[in-house]
Amino acid sequence: MERLTLGSLLNVIGELFSDEISIAVSNKNEYIYYRPSKRVDLKIRPGDVIKEGTIAYKALITGQKVSEFINRDVYGVPYHGMAVPFHHEGNLEGSVLAIYPALTEGKSVVTVKTQDGWKPIPFDDVKYLEVNDRKTHVVAAGVLGTNKNSLQDFEYMLPRESFVRCHRSFIVNVNHIDEVYPDTHSTFVLSMNNGERIPVSQSYSSYFRKLLGF
Asked: What is the pTM of this model?
């Protein structure tokens, strides 16, 4: 068997967790490898300097494994992560990170702005979210409104057992899908129980199928 390079090995490991977990590797000063997942992308690039307050920074400073929640002030999105420092011949060389999407903590509603004011909508009632004209539109039973958060924000806020990103412009509540159809312009089309049809793009199709089990 040919000798694996470090990059090849990291790519194989990253592929195992590509749906849920982002993988990063740093030396003592900067990131040297990054593979984002479908669920969370901190937009790290090889060569980026390690920021204070990140789990990589804390692992390198303490020389110990760090596992904690990091708020959106550091990278613009909240995340849970674990960083483990590694050594060579007794000397600290860098760290390896596993980055998880932040789970919903104590929230059960999406508050939308309507013509009359603001209305809290239970997660279960939300059918889908769509970005249009640089606004996030929330569609629920009998309610249509907007929210200031981006779809990326909602990916971390909404319970992942019910809400799935299926397109760069859509997140759907799988409990409101009537049927799934093949389509020539996108991988699939979702027929929602309010009569709307929503595309599933190729970049999200394998993740979508895996979560729905077909």
From this structure: 0.57
